[in-house]
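Need tokens for this chain, all 75 residues.
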Amino acid sequence: MTWKGFWEGIASLFENVLFIPYDALMKVELDSWWLANIVSWVFLLTGAVAFIYWMRKLKEFNESTESNYTFDETP
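Here are the structure tokens for all 75 residues:
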């Protein structure tokens, strides 16, 4: 197996397998403007919910007394 075959195998994997959902979304966007916007809004809302969840978890971590932010430099 050559390096060229290795890279062509990776390209084939991405083009023929991993991009199938992306290709399906492109087909949806070409078929219906409304459906494309609904998909975009679902992705946007999912990202917003994940961001809010992550910020709340960071706030809980910062307010907890479990962690100690001081550095002990005892020899």
